[in-house]
Automatic annotation (TrEMBL):
Signal peptide: 1-21
MF terms (GO), sorted A to Z: metal ion binding
All residue ranges annotated as the CcmH/CycL/Ccl2/NrfF N-terminal domain in the record: 24-132
Keywords: Heme, Iron, Membrane, Metal-binding, Signal, Transmembrane, Transmembrane helix
Organism per entry: Terriglobus albidus
Record protein name field: Cytochrome c-type biogenesis protein
Protein family according to the UniProt entry: Belongs to the CcmH/CycL/Ccl2/NrfF family.
């Protein structure tokens, strides 16, 4: 009898935990999506944090967001719905995919190319510096790379 009651208690407890997780998931999802969008009134604040007095848009948009989340659509479809209604500036960050991927990749690529270019430039300067000696008078003189170049310089500088 005790085992039977204990088993029933475990099943009820497991069901309660699942229901709590499902309810919390909707709230968490609502907050996540709401913090990924901007208010349309032009205040420049995140949708769920728009707190200026008399905002004409935030209450309506939050209601629309609740409706969209309750309808069960995935996050991308909700973002697309809001972007279609209010324009792409409603999103706090561009959706990753398609041409918007360029907005995420370009800064990293430019940084890497600039770093590599700078490293190559410094390397070239260091190599040139190694082939230069200074005379006792302080005049830098470029050393030739090989004997053929030295011979050509000697012939061209004869009087």
């Amino acid at each position: 009898m005790f085992r039977h009651r204990m088993m029933q208690f475990c099943v009820v407890l497991f069901g309660a935990v699942l229901l709590m997780a499902a309810a919390d998931d909707t709230g968490t999802r609502f907050n996540k999506i709401g913090h990924a969008m901007m208010c349309a009134c032009g205040c420049g604040q995140i949708l769920l944090e728009c707190n200026h007095v008399g905002c004409p848009d935030s209450d309506r948009m939050i209601g629309e967001l609740r409706t969209q989340v309750a309808s069960g659509g995935d996050d991308t479809s909700i973002f697309n719905w809001f972007a279609a209604k209010y324009g792409p500036t409603i999103l706090a960050a561009p959706i990753r995919g398609g041409f918007d991927t360029v907005a995420w990749i370009t800064p990293v690529v430019v940084f890497l190319l600039a770093t590599v270019g700078t490293a190559l430039l410094v390397r070239t300067w260091v190599r040139r510096r190694r082939n230069t000696v200074t005379t006792p008078e302080g005049i830098p003189v470029q050393l030739p790379e090989n004997d053929a170049v030295r011979e050509r310089i000697r012939r061209e500088t004869e009087y």
